[in-house]
């Protein structure tokens, strides 16, 4: 386990979520694995004996903890997981996998079936948005703001002077 790992709070879905994320990342060609699943051992705890307390998992080298903490807290887009993709094919694979049963958002954001927010972004987008030519970066931003899943061809078109929409 790495020194720092995000802990994701679920209400009874920690193991299902960990398995979903691991299988999605594997289908997208990334290393991913379930680590340790901790179960309640004694009766009389807040959950029945044998039910999942937490599950550790790793996605593309990043460790996570999924905790069944109960209904007290829910996810919000204020925290999102950012996936940097090499090309459009990778954007498509991650978008399709993580949005399955979830909700698409704007500008490359989506909320998965468990309520976790993700940003699925091509690696080249940052350089386009930070280009020294403000007209280029503004065109890319205008195109980006019109998108749900990011379209690298349209972003490149905007960058090079087209509308990108």
Q: What does this protein look like?
A:
- By secondary structure, the protein is an alpha/beta fold.
- Helices cover 32% and strands 27% of the residues.
- It contains five helices and eight strands, in the order βαββββαβββααα.
- A four-stranded mixed sheet has the order 1-4-3-2, covered by helices on one side. Strands 5-8-7-6 form a four-stranded mixed sheet, covered by helices on one side.
- The N and C termini lie far apart (43 Å).
Helix and strand arrangement:
Layout: E1 7-10, H1 14-27, E2 32-39, E3 52-59, E4 62-68, E5 80-85, H2 88-99, E6 103-104, E7 109-111, E8 117-122, H3 125-129, H4 134-145, H5 152-160
Parallel strand pairs: 1-4, 5-8
Antiparallel strand pairs: 2-3, 3-4, 6-7, 7-8
Helix pairs in contact: 1-2, 4-5
Which characteristics define this entry?
single chain; 165 residues; 4-stranded mixed β-sheet; elongated
Brief overview:
This protein has 165 residues and is α/β, with parallel strands linked by helices.
Global Rg: 19 Å
Distance between the termini: 43 Å
Tell the overall outline.
elongated
Unreliable stretches (pLDDT < 50, length at least 5) are: none
| β-strand amount | 25-35%
Oligomer: single chain
User: Care to count the β-strands?
Assistant: 8
**Order of strands across the biggest sheet?**
1-4-3-2
Mean of residue pLDDT values: 94
């Amino acid at each position: 386990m790495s020194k720092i790992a995000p802990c994701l709070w679920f209400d009874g879905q920690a193991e299902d979520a960990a398995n979903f994320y691991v299988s999605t990342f594997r289908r997208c060609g990334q290393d991913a694995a379930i680590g340790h699943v901790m179960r309640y051992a004694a009766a009389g705890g807040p959950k029945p004996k044998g039910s999942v307390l937490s599950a550790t998992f790793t996605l593309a080298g990043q460790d996570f903890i999924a905790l069944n903490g109960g209904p007290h807290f829910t996810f919000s887009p204020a925290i999102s997981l950012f996936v940097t993709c090499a090309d459009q094919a990778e954007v498509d694979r991650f978008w399709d996998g993580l949005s399955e049963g979830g909700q698409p958002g704007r500008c490359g954001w989506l909320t998965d079936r468990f309520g976790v927010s993700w940003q699925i972004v091509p690696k080249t987008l940052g350089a386009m948005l930070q280009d020294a030519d403000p007209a280029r970066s503004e065109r890319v931003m205008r195109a980006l703001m019109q998108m749900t899943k990011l379209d690298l061809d349209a972003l490149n078109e905007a960058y090079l002077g087209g509308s990108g929409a």
